[in-house]
Amino acid sequence: MSGFSLRHAIGLTSLLACTAATANPLVVRQQTDWKAVDGCAREISVAEFGKPLVVGCAAGGPGGFQIFRRNGSQWDLQPGAGVKIADLGNALTPFIIDKNGGLWRGSGARQPGCVQEIASSTRPDLWAVNCDRASGGYVIQRADNLTPVVAGGKPGDYDVSTWQTLPSKNGALKVAVGDTVWMINRDRQIYTFDRTSSQWQMKPGCAVEIAANGPHAWVIGCAAGGDGGNQIFQWSASGWKIVKGAAMKVAVDNLGNPWVIDKSGGIWTWTFKTPR
Questions:
Q1: pLDDT in tens, 210-239
Q2: Which candidate, 80, 85, 128, 189, has a CA 20 to 30 Å from the CA of 175?
Q3: Yes or no: is domain 6-269 CATH 2.60.40.10?
Q4: Higher pLDDT pick, 45 / 275
Q5: Are the CB atoms for 60 and 81 separated by under 8 Å?
Q6: What is the per-residue pLDDT across 27-67, written as a single tens digit (0 to 9) for each?
């Protein structure tokens, strides 16, 4: 349904609530580099510059909420409904988690296992936090064998064949995949995965949400940052650098530009770089 606006999809009541969030003075005060984007969202994932994928605020079916992709200055409704998403890029079909932990490629291709968090890179490289609470908490899984879709998908689409279970430090809550795999555990500690030793390496900081894309990593910290949510941090060579603003969810595109969702569902982005 190309051209379907998120503003129409969320309905008048949700639209008014989201418009109020966009005007939240505490979120925008002295923050001229954050740009408000129309719409209301619960989750966000972005692989390519200017083309984020969001889980909207209105119900979309038994699986959860409506899903939209940014197309220029509007939101296009996507097939399927869910509560979590992993964007593989505009040309590929995203992975969607429904409200029961079912994982889908798009709206119709069920994948094995039960997961509560999903993250991917454009390699492709798919990681998840599973639904089974093992000793110490939930564990990290990596798609051990991604199979190219021969029929019924877009060129470059993959299905999960099997999952590889990896050790997780004190139970996993969140996972993000860029050049490096990142994890937040149940103690809100931050780790990166050493692919050579298959061990997690602890990083400084405390976080509740994390996003990665290529060399870029952003987190939502543990401390309040204003009415919009918690503090926002960007990873640099010297550690975490605080960025003005406050939010509840974060994503980052391939150029390092962050997208965030505030406590009221308002969507914001900060463009540091644009394509050549």
A1: 999 999 999 999 999 999 999 999 999 889
A2: 80
A3: no
A4: 45
A5: yes
A6: 333 335 899 999 999 999 999 888 999 999 999 999 999 99
Phi, psi (degrees; rounded to nearest 5) at 221: -75, -175
